[in-house]
Write a structure and sequence with these properties.
726 residues; Rossmann fold; Heat Shock Protein 90; 5-stranded parallel sheet; 21 helices; 19% strand
Length: 726
């Protein structure tokens, strides 16, 4: 990737509570050659302190940080760092959380679902846009040469125009505000109503399927048919609700636009509908398709609905044949989807794009009557048109015309994970399910007692050693229980009384950083699924589509995947030989210590230690003996300091010790220095020889206005000064 850097480096402050994400950002921004990371913070308090201290050009702020969260932090940052560009980066629902963040003073909002290169490009584009805006606001020569007469005339004309247009503008603003409130209310109602409808519906589906599985052999044919009808009707109602929600989501802000390869979109569409294509024996072909400007997720939904429609409305005994093609027009592209189906009568070609319009009974062709209405909404949002006409060879031709447009945002390319399809999160870390020797401790966070009973019933049917299920109804109760009880896995509903969507996920993750999380929700929104798994969840299940095998597999794979993730995290942040923190973790802890120091007024002391004579140990006894020597030395240093202090190995025979909480008097940290020196000088027996080394120790004292890199550099210089005097 190549991004032209603005003049000078962009000074950026990163705020995120996850060490690995901060490390990723640090490396990404540094490698770009565009940014200078002036600070990192893991919570809101530290973020405000660092923003006030460094006055960065850009503040990249995660909303879900512990303590003072991102929402509470934004106004303080605006007041104390008025020239900083605040970009909110979060996994929250972008429609609501983004608007709230912008209302509080943030300048831009980016959802946490982009690849690093795309995220970097977005931040640069936002920074450039704001910089250009600043320049143009102060450029008087936009109006030509600034003579006194021309300036006076211009001001008079502008003032008069504003006076005349004032009442009209105010009425328009009032009307727009009322419409916005109405739309927000309708969207909120649709979401809540859908959740309340789906909740009992999934209970009906779950217990009906359990009834058919457990007692089906005791029912006669009529009884089995009744149960099957209950399940079938409930699934149809669920499809209707999901279709309504998908349609309502199109009422949000205008779709993002970027270059989208329709070849890729159709490839993914065919993959998503592969089971239905195989079942029908369908033949799907295509010409080479162009790249168009649009929203990749919405265009994916458009093509998926058109292909599903073509597969469905085919006469019995006829092999479905569908062909995708494109034609260039004067101002854009014409996308054509041809089929050999039953066709559409001319008198019905307009009405089929209406909501809930069905031309056939459920017995003939199942469906909700929402798919083509959704297609029309998507095409109109892209300033295009859609219509249906006869296919000369029989069947229908759906024609979508999309105009050429300039991209306005960089968004993730259409792909299986985020394309709005039906693909589940891929289990790509652990592929072997090894049963544990004990029941797994599982915490279910669910406010519906009916769903809790259903999950309990499903888990009771799992093979031994099985599960021990704990149930709470709120996130706060979950946090309390997780602080007292060790859990293997959390099953988390995303709609709870005291937290919603990814906010609930963030709070539970903060309370149980080492525990696997499986999200269970009523929503089949694939964007939310991708955001949940990207945020920190290990897996994602949809209510009403879970059986014992799926639930058990999700729990066990997630537990194993989380264990592997925890092991990788330890390896990434610790020295493999001594298991002490490495340089990355040491700098992170030093930054946190300095932030606490700035608030408390206490001092931080950094000791930089180099072992004098260690090279002779390697030369005389070999590297294996040298490794043993370093392991013993690490244990001694760890024992010589307080439990709250940090001992890190940053390479070779160099160690850094971080101690905090001092008032600034020499006598407070001098005993620590003497203990460190004494620990080093005790002989270590190697191959029957008492081997003794000494240490050169430099120290730096920091507090307000200090930063980790400068403190480490000062301590290093002091250590070498001491070494030269020996």
């Amino acid at each position: 990737m190549s991004i032209a850097a603005p003049a000078g480096l962009i000074r950026i402050l990163v705020v995120d509570d996850t060490p690995t994400i901060r490390l990723l950002f640090q490396r990404m921004f540094t490698a770009s050659g565009i940014f200078d990371v002036v600070g990192e913070a893991a919570n809101g308090d530290d973020a405000v302190d660092l923003a006030r201290k460094h006055q960065p050009d850009v503040i990249l702020l995660d909303l879900a940080v512990p303590g003072v969260n991102g929402f509470q932090t934004i106004p303080t940052m605006v007041a104390q760092s008025p020239d900083s560009l605040i970009i909110v980066l979060s996994g929250f629902n972008s429609d609501s959380a983004g608007e709230q963040a912008l209302a509080l003073g943030a300048h831009a909002y980016i959802a946490k679902r982009h690849r690093p290169d795309e995220l970097l490009r977005q931040i640069v584009d936002i920074y450039r846009s704001r910089s250009v805006g600043r320049v143009r606001r102060v450029r008087d020569d936009d109006f030509g040469p600034a003579t006194p007469d021309s300036v006076g005339s211009l001001r008079t004309t502008t003032d008069e125009r504003r006076r005349q247009q004032g009442p009209v503008v105010r009425r328009l603003e009032s009307t727009n505000a009322a419409l916005a409130r109405s739309n927000e209310g309708l969207a909120a109602f649709a979401t809540v109503a859908a959740h309340d409808l789906r909740s009992p519906l999934h209970v009906v589906i779950g217990f009906s399927e359990l009834l058919a599985d457990a007692y089906g052999d005791r029912l006669d044919d009529d009884g089995r048919e009744m149960v099957a009808s209950i399940v079938s009707g409930a699934h149809r109602m669920e499809q209707m609700i999901e279709g309504l929600l998908a349609y309502c989501r199109l009422d949000g802000p205008p779709p993002a636009t970027t270059e989208v390869s329709l070849d890729d979109v159709v490839t993914i569409t065919i993959s998503m509908l592969a089971a239905e294509i195989d079942r029908r024996g369908a033949v799907v072909t295509r010409d080479s398709l162009p790249a168009v400007t649009g929203d990749p997720v919405q265009l994916q939904i458009l093509m998926q609905n058109l292909l599903a429609n073509a597969l469905k409305f085919t006469a019995d005994g006829v092999t479905p044949r569908v062909h995708f093609s494109a034609e260039r027009t004067d101002g854009g592209w014409k996308i054509i989807v041809e089929d050999n189906g039953i066709g559409v009568e001319p008198s019905e070609r307009e009405q089929i794009f209406g909501m809930f319009v069905r031309l056939h009974s459920q017995a003939e062709y199942a469906g909700t009557g929402i798919g083509l209405a959704t297609c029309k909404r998507i095409v109109e949002a892209h300033e295009g048109t859609i219509h249906v006409e006869d296919n000369p060879s029989g069947g229908s031709r759906f024609v979508v015309e999309l105009p050429d447009r300039e991209p306005t945002a960089t968004v993730a390319s259409a792909g299986p994970a985020g394309a709005g399809g039906t693909a589940s999160p891929v289990h790509d870390v652990v592929t072997v399910d090894v049963p544990p020797e004990r029941p797994l401790e599982v915490l279910l966070v669910e406010d519906s007692h009916e769903h809790a009973r259903l999950i309990n019933a499903l888990l009771r049917r799992a093979p031994q050693p099985g599960y021990r299920l704990h149930h709470v109804g709120t996130v706060s109760q979950a946090r309390d229980l997780l602080s007292m009880t060790d859990m293997d896995c959390v099953l988390l509903d995303l709609s709870l009384p005291d937290a919603d969507n990814l906010e609930a996920l963030s709070q539970v993750r903060a309370a149980a950083t080492q525990v696997a999380i499986v999200v269970i929700t009523s929503s089949a929104d694939e964007a939310l699924a991708f955001a949940a798994v990207s945020h920190v969840a290990q897996d994602y299940l949809v209510k009403g589509h879970i059986d014992t095998e799926q639930l058990s597999r999700a729990i066990r794979w997630s537990v194993q995947r989380k264990a592997l993730e925890n092991e990788l995290m330890r390896d990434a942040l610790h020295d493999p030989l001594t298991h002490l923190p490495n340089r990355t973790l040491m700098l992170d802890r030093l930054a946190s210590a300095l932030a606490r120091s700035e608030r408390s007024g206490k001092r931080v002391v950094v000791f930089f230690m180099d072992l004098d004579g260690f090279k002779l140990v390697n030369d005389r006894f070999g590297h294996e003996a040298g490794d043993h020597f370093l392991i013993v030395m690490a244990e001694r240093l760890r024992s010589a300091v307080r439990p709250q202090d940090t001992v890190a190995r940053i390479g070779g025979d160099e160690f850094v010790i971080i101690c905090e909480g001092f008032n600034g008097h020499d006598f407070e940290w001098q005993p620590l220095q003497r203990r460190l020196t004494a620990a080093v000088e005790i002989p270590i027996e190697i191959a029957g020889h008492a081997v003794r080394v000494s240490a050169s120790i430099g120290l730096a004292i920091g507090g307000r206005e200090s930063n980790p890199d400068s403190m480490l550099r000062d301590a290093d210089m002091a250590m070498y000064a001491m070494k030269r005097t020996r």
